[in-house]
Design goal:
By secondary structure, the protein is mostly beta strands. It contains 1 helix and 12 strands; from the N terminus they run αββββββββββββ.
Amino acid sequence: MKRINKIIIFVFVLAIFCPLKSNADDMITVKPYFKYGSIGWQEENHALASGNKVMAGAGISLTDKQYFVKRVSAEIWVMAEPTDEDREMPSDGLRLAIDGGYEFKLNSKWVVYPLAGIGVERWRRNSPDGDGEQDRFWGDLLFAKANLMVGAKYKDAYYVEAGLNHPFWSDTDSGHSPGGKLGLAVNAGILLHKNVDLGLFYNQTAFGADGSQTESRLTLVGILIGYNF
């Protein structure tokens, strides 16, 4: 319940800030959104951490298309069901990101746009306890990663984005600094009446081993519902 409360508080903050957008500036779009899906976590030699759970999330993005595309976003996600034998998998995450790109209009129907950016994320989970295991695996992971994507829109209604990400810096409460590995991200959806965003998302982030901290990979997949102001 405490994790769901985080979503409620975050959504309340979004509701306060969304009306601050100027209606006169059509180049700026503010989109609050909700996510629902699953968390998949794989970690070598750590059976108590590997598994799949239901997740819920909320976020907001601000996109400015004047001169070139600039997008700032913030998001929180939490595990939406109790843990059992996989009690040491990540339970919640926070992401802040900024992306930039440029839209190329191919014709009256098609637009393509490359996007590049960086983001900072924090993941938390229950640390191993007992038998001197506290420092074997991290319990709090902070990292930065680079993103590179290519998107396409059709008739300003259908869209798809696909690309790669790679963590390039990390810090943990256990003293480990796992190096990043290539991950994959895909978003696709439809804009109804140019405002309601119904989409699907897939996001994978991976890390290599560092000492006792083994290789790991987080996969978030599910549906997204948003509204463009």
